[in-house]
Amino acid sequence: MKKTIVLKNVTYFYPSSNTPALENISLEVNRGEFLVIAGPSGGGKSTLVRIILGLIPHIYGGVLHGEVLVNGVNVVEKGFRAIVNNVGVVIQNPENQVVNIVVEEEIAFTLENLLYSPEDIRGRVNEAIKALGIEHLRRRLTHTLSSGEIQKVVIASALALNSKILILDEPLAHLDPQGARELVSTLYKLCKDRGITVIIVEHRLSELAKYADRIVVLNKRILFDGKPTLAINKLLEIGVEVPPISRLFKELNKSPIPLHVDSSVIEILTRDIVNSDGICTSNSLSSSYDDYTAHKSDRAIFIEDLWYKYPDGRIALRGVNLEIFRGEFIAIIGANGAGKTTLIKHFNGLLKPWRGRVLVFGKDTKFSTVAELARNVGIVFQNPLHQFFEKTVLREVLFTLNNFGYKNCIDRALEVLKIFGLEDYAERSPYELSIGEQRRLAIASIVAYEPPIIVLDEPTAGIDYSLKLELLKILTKIIEKKKTVIIVSHDVEFLALAPLTRIVVMANGEVIASGSPREVFYNVDILKDSHIIPPQIVELVKLLGLERSIRSLNSYEFAEYLKRCYNVS
Amino acid sequence: MSLEKGIIKHLQSALIYEEAVSFYHNLDPRIKLLYLVITFIMISTSSILKLLIILVFTFVLASLYPRIYRKTLYILIGLTPFMIFTAIFVIIFTVAFGGGTLREATLEQVKVFMRVAAVAVTMTTIALSTTPHEFVHALVKMGFRYTYLYTLIITVRFIPLVFNELSDIYDSQRSRGLELEKGGIRERLRKLNAILIPAFVCSLLRARDLAEALELRGFGYCSKRTFYRNLKLKKTDIVFAALITISASMIYLLVP
């Protein structure tokens, strides 16, 4: 099979660094292959993409040893200009790579730069638009597109150029489950129908694993390179997210480990269940967390008929009614654009109701300043870089404490940094921290002043599995202190692991459901209306017909149930 | 803050291309540039009657795409506080120190307002119906180098993103208890760092991504480039060009 990308013994050092970002990488990618590169954050995945694209060392500098061939062109010697026609790339924040105002102009942009004739460009643009099914976007303004739509436009731009290699750097990070599923199936179709080599760098593998021809596990070095089914052990070992079904089989010590729920998985588990005595019938896994009515003593937030209209006239919230109680751990879920972030911005008065009212501990937010409300409601937004401006990590925490009137509180700040495992970085710049550490610092700077309500907006976007587990531990500690925690997220697999008391489901600016995680995730109608895909284990339990006996949310719960009730192992 | 935000949003929305089908959307961008140049030449007159006719003329032409009226209004409302302040200042200064009468000074300010209104309606007409890409195409046809002109497209493209980012940063810092409106001037300036530094860092990251994207997409590889649209003057273009040129000449020559 023809090799389209070849890396031979590649080692790379960033400028002024003595430790290699990548070490002795040898990799061959076949034409028409669907390759997934997985690995922990900071493992060199994005660096590898830059090397393949020729940006390293030609733009980034540093020292690169070894050879990189893309379609036979030595990129290290000839630079990225030599492969412009061959490779299309979707970067982590694709909105930053879109240059033009109108979609059609954007798709034509590279072709125009490379002096294709107007007739040829129009033909290619039309064909690319057709292939991606984005005719409706042709005249749309690029800044009005959703994340998923922007990705499709960038891919169309590469297709128009007839690029035979498509590289995507963490494309699923900002997509809701429906959007992620749609994008992955589009890429798979392009790969199989058009013979395009697709390389995806990602650590969310639940959606991807079943499509991959091959998985490369990277953590500075290549730890594994082979069939996805064989990669699971290595992925589990280094703490990368694997499909819950794979984790379930691992927990049950069964092999071969599957990557997705299919008929053979159902057959294996059904056989085990039928052959056993079946000693459990009731849902013995229901935890105290499920009973959110237990928390109904002390109301923290009360929202009554809340409407919000943006200055451009768009209605973002439509008659939201919601009560949140002290000590609850709540997730607000919904597709992108459902109104989740708009809702939480009402909790500390960043937005004021257009109609209706929001009360925080009985205080109407309409008549209070953000600074007053923020004493009770600490919000951690999605991008930690929107917060950092101080010289050191310690000062970042002190800044928040000082704003809320705490003086001479270095000891307190250090104590919080210790809780979050950041005490060794106290005198370092926040910009020197890794993504996971930055995320922890953002949360630490809010937790430091101990607001009774803590809200986190998409806290798991772009972080790997081990960091998610770390985040979960931190949140559990906060809950234990009787704080109210509200998470806005569409990462259902993370939510399936969290000890939530309640899930609030939003769609089109309305709250369409509110209930325990088991009630919500097992309700097909609610999920359909909100464009949310249930956790994989929920799908499995339903396919096995065990829903009446057990309503597991994650692989650990379900494995424990199968072992205990059916002696499956 | 919300008032300033509102004004900026309105000004921004008035000057951003809108997807629609209209006479102006089909007009050749070169003719639109001609229209803008003619308007600028015409408003340099000091005759109030000429200015009035120019104003009426530009507003009548805007009727070919009625949304222009609303958007022009946004611009004028946005500029009004600034214009009123300037007018009062100039009138007081002229009467007190310049030796002019109140009537003359006021009349001059009325003329300024008429000029601004005429330019606003023309600018809105063009901005709403022409993508920056079409502008670049027109200017390249006139001999300008595209690599410099693309700065215009990139600016227009990234203005909404930068505004949104600034708004997100401001929200993020307010949620941490930042109160820009409290404290002395020095303290307020220091607090402003909490907004400016993250904005600067995020802009740098964005600029890096953009620069890489431009390189990877062949931008600037050749001194020339092609355009996927064909720019050919149509009958309507010629008729419109003739109409504005003849009308402008008549106003200039016949109106006292």
Description:
The complex is a heterodimer of chains A (569) and B (256). Chain A has 569 residues and is of the alpha/beta class. Chain A is 36% helix and 21% strand. Chain B is mainly alpha-helical and 256 residues long. Chain B contains 10 helices and no strands. Chain B has helices at residues 2-14, 23-26, 29-42, 48-62, 67-98, 102-129, 132-141, 146-174, 185-216, 235-254. In chain B, helix 1 (2-14) crosses helix 5, helix 5 (67-98) packs antiparallel against helix 6 (102-129) and helix 7 runs antiparallel to helix 8 (146-174). The longest helix of chain B has 32 residues, at 67-98. Chains A and B meet through helix 4, helix 5, helix 12 and helix 13 of A and helix 1, helix 8 and helix 9 of B.
Short description:
The complex is a heterodimer of chains A (569) and B (256). With 569 residues, chain A is of the alpha/beta class.
Keywords:
heterodimer, A: 569 residues, alpha/beta, six-stranded mixed beta sheet, 21 helices, 20 strands, 36% helix, 21% strand, globular, B: 256 residues, mainly alpha, 10 helices, flat
Radius of gyration of chain B equals 22 Å
Mean pLDDT of chain A: 89
Helical content of chain B, roughly?
Answer: over 70%
**Structural class, judged by helices and strands of chain A?**
alpha/beta
Ends apart, CA distance between termini of chain A: 40 Å
Numbering strands along the chain, what is their spatial order in the largest sheet of chain A?
A: 6-7-8-3-9-10
| Topology, number of strands of chain A | 20
Q: Rg of chain A from C-alpha positions?
A: 25 Å
> Helix content range of the residues of chain A, please?
25-40%
Count of helical regions of chain A: 21
One letter per element, helices H and strands E, the order of chain B comes to: HHHHHHHHHH
